[in-house]
Amino acid sequence: MRHNFLILLLALLAAGCTPQKFIVPTPLAHPATLFPADAFITQRGVLTVRGRQFTLNGYVAKSKTRGLRLIMTENFGGVLADVLVKPDGNVFVLKAAPPFRPAWVKKYIAADLQCVFVDRAGTNCPLQMLSQTHFVIERRGYKLDLRTVEVKPGVQPAEMFDEKSGGKP
Amino acid sequence: MKIIFTIAAVMLAFAMFAADDGALQPVADPQPILQDLQRKMSSLGSVYFELTQERHLKLFTDPLMSEGVMLIARPDQIRWETTAPFQSILLGDKKSVAQFECTDGKWEKLKLGFPQMLQRVMGQMSLMNQGKLDALTDDYTISVATNSSVAVVTLVPKDQNVRGMLSSLEVKLRPDFSATREVVMNEPNGDFTRIIFHNEKRGVKFPPGTFDQTKPVEISVVRASVSHAP
Predict the structure, then answer these.
(1) Which chain A residues are within 8 Å of B111, Cβ to Cβ?
(2) B window 76-95, beta carbon within 8 A of A
(3) Where in chain B does DSSP place strands (E)?
(4) How far is A119 from chain B (nearest CA, A)?
(5) Burial class of residue B47 (count of CB atoms within 10 Å of its CB; 0-12, 13-18, 19+)
(6) How far apart are CA B73 and CA A85, in angstroms?
(7) Which residues on adjacent β-strands are paired with residue B172?
(8) pTM listed for this prediction
(9) Which residues pair with A143 in a beta bridge?
(10) Extents of the domains making up chain A
């Protein structure tokens, strides 16, 4: 009886999932200013294409001087895309796995990456900032709902920003 | 995805085996072990695992970490829930699958892409959970190795295309199959994923709504319900 009551109590108390920490929005010129110059950022995304939704994980290494490196995975860790954006804007698609094609990764994923993390991404950035951890990018054909779940400040290894390097030495 | 549900089936199978310390002996031919598993799997109705997933990519010095739970109930129900660093629930049975994401403190049911693919996976898992391990041996070459501290069951995909993504799947158990276990999925390029299972509860009675694909009960409720199980 006591056990059942405990379960009922928990059910009433836990009527929803844990909300992310709410941060009062402040006027910001661009979401890029939210992130440290050098950091490792984890994001969770929901990609909506033709009414169908796919969940994605994004792991972004950010360097003030070397650029951005994104590893995008599906639910269970399979790498779907690996893209490097140099500070000069050059894009290197290091991996693209189905359903993503290399050209699609270069044209859209790299653009979205810059949209969030590069202050001077230009006009090709249809981004809405719903909070300091919640962004929506909506382009013709898809909508990407992004949430920042973890930010680890710190300089990232140089190898991560070398298109010729396969990874850690 | 298919790999995850294979793991789920294997974990349930070995949970069964762990229930009988005397049943497993190191053997060169794993077939008797599989036959024993097949025979015994009919008696365990459910299992609860908490898990830590480490995704090791050559690119990163540190593994990408996540936490979660996996629940399995006969004949074909599974719940895979990520609890950190984000919250997501994947539910499935032989007929359908559903996914929920935590959005601003509320669960949102997704309109899944490619649900038919997930349904096929669930169907296969259902067969395996019913003890029809032929599905497993059809897809994998299975070997068993043991030493004084660990027993390792290795599954190598027979399909060359699958081996292009997964070179092997290792299930690591204590020789007596008593507690800490893990699954390692090795990829051809050296990347791997390690899933460490802990706080396992067998033969638990899950509360109503645990596998509900419309409004699944919160995992805190499930945890409270199974906390008294051995």
Answers:
(1) 48, 51-53
(2) 85-88, 90
(3) 46-56, 64-73, 77-84, 88-92, 97-103, 106-109, 140-146, 151-157, 168-173, 181-186, 192-202
(4) 25
(5) buried
(6) 45
(7) B152, B182
(8) 0.81
(9) A48, A138
(10) 31-155
Encoded tokens for B37: 């598993």
CA–CA dist B1, B109 (Å, integer): 19
Tokens coding A40:
């490792």
Class assignment of domain A31-155?
Answer: mainly beta
Which distant-in-sequence residues (6+ apart) come within 8 Å of A50 by Cβ? none
Tokens matching residue A84: 């490097």
Taking chain A (169 residues) in runs of 10, the rounded mean pLDDT of each run is: 42 53 51 91 95 94 95 87 94 92 94 89 81 92 95 93 68
Report residue B45 as tokens: 């109705």
For the residues of B187-206, what is the DSSP string, one character each?
-TTS-EEEEEEEEEEES--P
d(CA B57, CA A82) in angstroms, rounded, equals 12
What CA–CA distances, in Å, run from B164 to B1, B8, B57, B141, B191? 15, 21, 16, 15, 12
Q: Output A104 or B152, whichever has higher pLDDT.
A: A104
Mean pLDDT, all residues of chain B: 78
Task: From residue A71, give the alpha-carbon distance in Å to each of A53, A155, A157, B23.
Answer: 19, 17, 15, 44
Q: Is the ipTM above a cut-off of 0.90?
A: no
